[in-house]
Amino acid sequence: MQIAEVPAGISLGETVGPQVYRLLRRRIIQAELLPGERLSESEVAKSLSVSRQPVREAFIKLSEEGLVQVLPQRGTFVTKISVAAVMDARFVREAIEADVVREVAENRASSAIDELRRQIGEQKSVPHSDRAAFLRLDELFHRTLAAAAGKSYAWNVIEGVKAQMDRVRFLSVDDMHVTRLIDQHERIVEAIASGDQSSAEQAMRLHLREILNSLPAIASGRAELFDRD
Amino acid sequence: MQIAEVPAGISLGETVGPQVYRLLRRRIIQAELLPGERLSESEVAKSLSVSRQPVREAFIKLSEEGLVQVLPQRGTFVTKISVAAVMDARFVREAIEADVVREVAENRASSAIDELRRQIGEQKSVPHSDRAAFLRLDELFHRTLAAAAGKSYAWNVIEGVKAQMDRVRFLSVDDMHVTRLIDQHERIVEAIASGDQSSAEQAMRLHLREILNSLPAIASGRAELFDRD
DNA sequence: TCTACCCTACTACCATACCAGTTAAGCGCA
DNA sequence: TGCGCTTAACTGGTATGGTAGTAGGGTAGA
Prior knowledge:
Radius of gyration of chain A: 19 Å
CATH class of the largest domain in chain A: Mainly Alpha
CATH superfamily of the largest domain in chain A: GntR ligand-binding domain-like
Helix content of chain A: 55-70%
Number of helices of chain A: 11
Distance between the termini of chain A: 52 Å
CATH architecture of the largest domain in chain A: Up-down Bundle
CATH topology of the largest domain in chain A: Four Helix Bundle (Hemerythrin (Met), subunit A)
Strand order of the largest sheet of chain A: 1-3-2
Number of domains of chain A: 2
Strand content of chain A: under 5%
Oligomer: homodimer
């Protein structure tokens, strides 16, 4: 009998804190835990059959990412999505990925370019209705770019920043959008393949500004999820 | 009688974990805690008259910044300075600050420019032998730039990244260097004042590459502090 | 002398207990 | 009925207990 699992998927063999963190992070980004909702150390602990301690560590990490707000002696709450926070995160991400893609365009490693093209093919083959699958592939694409630039660490930094953007993206990605995003991926890779650093940079900046097009509509259409700011 | 303080400076009124974190962070950056040195939850807790719990939280945060390495059931150790980690952090910082300074040069807010010039004056007036004072002013200068761009969040991200660089800077800043750095600050501000985004960006990139000049000498001269990589 | 094993001391991780502070509901009084 | 106080339940922060696992020193045997 297998007892290395408890209900919601906390496994032994890895420390508990990071597992709780990832679980809650995903649930917040996918809007299963709604903005404004109250989280309790003890309730989360009980529901996952772990103690409060690792849950607390997860809360701290989530609060550093701005996904929850911890009010001592009062409670912990899922933050509302803040347009300002999304814009701030986007700015940082654009700055980093602009330099990353310049680096890749300078190196022009053919193996990396092949891999990126292969991934674009995969992106096209995924049914556009499967949002989660596309978002995974999109994330992989960007991480692969960073790795190709020899800047995996830069991707780690982006991961700590992008959660705010991901919340919006989860709400906004639709069919038409996916086609457009894949097209932008292609332009980026072609600029890289031709060694044109400036074009690659501009293509990336344009790509990462795509969220700005959908943000206003989402923020007003789903106002209950957003902080008024 | 004042009892809001215990020996090394943990005060009530603020939660303990972050205080322990900042204390240890500073001591690692200033090489009071040496690379390779062993830290123990219980010993640190005892020496600060706090419990192990908040110390553990500090260790987790420090490990996320790469300042310590936590080996479960074995121990926690101050990381050696890694040239690769310094380069990675520098890359990310340059990318972010390049875009920040472009933004400032675009806005050209006169109040911000005045403040930056005032700070440069202050930097010149500090005795060059006082490394810590200059490093504080340097940090303030860069933080002010981010604020002037309306991107205070971007500075938060940089703070989480720059610890690795700060360890090297603490070892490398000397008199000649300080004059040079202040001169670079002036060039940045003048480019901003004239609204020349490209010049401002290039001046900033040059400024942030300064560490590359001192890094090789430090890494070989103080090899015992560095990871062999 | 060297090797293999055991045993002790120590580690971080997890769980639990206690605390001060906040909140809100309910009761008593006007 | 409506207001104000009391109080009990709950919060996160801190302290402490207990556990599995590691490392290193010392001892017994070859």
